[in-house]
Structures are given as structure tokens and as C-alpha cells.
Task: inverse folding
């Protein structure tokens, strides 16, 4: 029995550290299976050297080193796949955002090209109109003035723009034209209007817009429209949005914007004391 007690103590000590479940071997009662019984002179060491013991022990929870390595490898593999999946998903999201940015950029480029093409076509059309006006109205060379002093010819008259960025009122504008044997200009047709507007627009670079007095007059109600300087009905009128103002402001000016497509331009009527940045003059050839 002393041997059995030693085995129990030994197994109990080992089990305490390794978490074993120990019980009698199947078909064996501890008293009858005591290997010391019937063996006289048995020693503890000789008993321990035997392969036949009445107690069997099974590991309760601690896995073997091999199992632990396998579990660790599986866990590491699963974590690695999860990390790789997150990285791939992140890269896919970034690529999707880059694709959307590229599509937006491409659309912006297409719109810009369309606007540039439209602007170019508009400029070409204006040049054609100016050329036609010069050819049509330059049929009498004897009355023609030098081209340096006549950038625009129409209907037997010369038209040009005088800019005074400090501003001039309506009366000062008339005096500027009169000092060059001219008068403030009238508008005689739609084509003529857009040629004058384009000529004025080239001075809009400094501020993005420019305005100038012309010779047309505003006729208050019941007429409520513009006339030529001599009182005749104007052949073509294109008012700025919100104009004419139905008050006694009879001087008429022309506003030109750098962006020829905007509605923030065209004819306005103002008080004679208002100032504008220039004047459009007209002189008979």
C-alpha cells in the first residue's frame, strides 16, 4: 500500500501542474491491483520501473505542443487571410474613388472643350460680321478715314471706343466725341449692335466688365423704350435684365462682360450724372 500511496501523491502532484484526470484502470480495484502485493523485497524504484500500474491518467485540458502549434498556425493563417481581405477591400475602395475622380475630371474637360469650341465659333462669327461690314461699307474710298482712327465702319460712318477708367458722365462723353468731330454713337441693327459690344468687350479685361455711354436715348412711358439720338425709333434694342427703369433717366449706356454668354450685360438707362468708364463714338466718313 505504501507504493500505491506514493503513486497517488506523484500522480496528484503531476496532475496539479498538468491538469490530468486519473482513475483506476478498468477492471482493477486498487487494493487488488497493488503491484507491491506478492512481491517481497520490492522497492519504490523497482516498482516505478514497471509498466503495469493500477491508475490511468488522461490530460484534462492542456493541449499537446503539436496541437498548440497547429492551433497557432491555423489562427495565424485565419488572421492573415482576414488582414489580406481588409487590405484588398481598402485598395478596391481607393481605386473606385480614383475612378470616380477621373470620370469627373474627364467630364469637366469635355465641358471645357465644348465651351472653348463655342467661344471660338462665336469669335469667328464676329470676325466674319466685321469683315462683311468693312467690305460692304467701304465702297467710297474718297470719304474713308484712315484705318488707324476707324476700327469699325458701318453704314457710311466710323465707330470707335474711348475709355476713361476714372469715369465720365453723360455730358462729358458727348464732349469727348465732339472733340474728334464725332458724336455719341447710335445702334443701327442687330449685327451692328454685336460688333460694337465685341469692340467694347476687349476693354473689359481689367475689371471683367466695362460700360460706356452711347448716343441713344430712353423715352419714358408711354413709349418706355430707346430711340436714336434724333428721336427716331431704334431699329434694335437689347436691354440688360431689369431695364429700362421707368423713370426720367434718359441717358443710355452699354455694358459689356468678359463672358459673352452671360445676361449681365447689354443696354441700361441711367441719370446723366452717373459715370461710366468710356463712350462709343460715331463719325460720318
Result:
Amino acid at each position: 500500500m505504501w507504493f500505491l500511496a506514493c503513486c497517488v501523491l506523484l500522480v496528484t502532484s503531476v496532475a496539479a501542474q498538468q491538469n490530468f484526470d486519473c482513475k483506476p484502470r478498468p477492471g482493477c480495484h486498487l487494493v487488488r491491483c497493488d503491484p507491491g502485493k506478492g512481491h517481497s523485497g520490492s522497492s519504490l524504484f523497482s516498482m516505478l520501473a514497471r509498466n503495469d500500474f493500477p491508475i490511468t491518467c488522461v490530460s484534462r485540458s492542456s493541449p499537446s505542443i503539436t496541437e498548440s502549434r497547429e492551433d497557432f498556425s491555423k489562427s495565424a493563417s485565419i488572421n492573415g487571410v482576414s488582414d489580406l481581405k481588409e487590405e484588398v477591400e481598402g485598395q478596391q475602395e481607393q481605386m473606385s474613388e480614383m475612378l470616380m475622380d477621373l470620370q469627373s475630371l474627364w467630364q469637366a474637360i469635355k465641358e471645357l472643350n465644348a465651351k472653348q469650341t463655342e467661344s471660338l465659333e462665336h469669335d469667328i462669327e464676329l470676325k466674319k460680321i466685321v469683315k462683311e461690314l468693312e467690305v460692304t461699307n467701304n465702297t467710297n474710298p474718297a470719304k474713308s478715314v484712315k484705318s488707324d482712327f476707324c476700327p469699325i465702319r458701318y453704314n457710311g460712318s466710323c465707330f470707335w471706343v474711348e475709355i476713361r477708367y476714372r469715369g465720365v458722365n453723360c455730358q462729358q462723353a458727348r464732349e469727348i466725341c465732339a472733340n474728334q468731330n464725332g458724336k455719341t454713337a447710335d445702334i443701327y441693327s442687330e449685327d451692328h449692335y454685336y460688333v460694337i459690344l465685341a469692340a467694347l468687350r476687349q476693354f473689359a479685361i481689367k475689371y471683367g466688365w466695362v460700360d460706356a455711354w452711347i448716343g441713344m436715348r430712353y423715352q419714358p412711358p408711354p413709349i418706355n423704350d430707346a430711340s436714336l439720338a434724333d428721336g427716331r425709333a431704334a431699329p434694335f434694342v437689347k436691354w440688360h435684365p431689369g431695364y429700362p427703369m421707368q423713370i426720367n433717366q434718359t441717358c443710355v449706356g452699354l455694358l459689356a462682360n468678359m463672358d459673352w454668354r452671360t445676361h449681365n450685360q447689354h443696354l441700361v438707362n441711367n441719370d446723366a450724372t452717373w459715370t461710366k468708364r468710356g463712350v462709343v463714338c460715331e463719325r460720318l466718313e
The chain has three domains: 2-62, 76-137, 143-284.
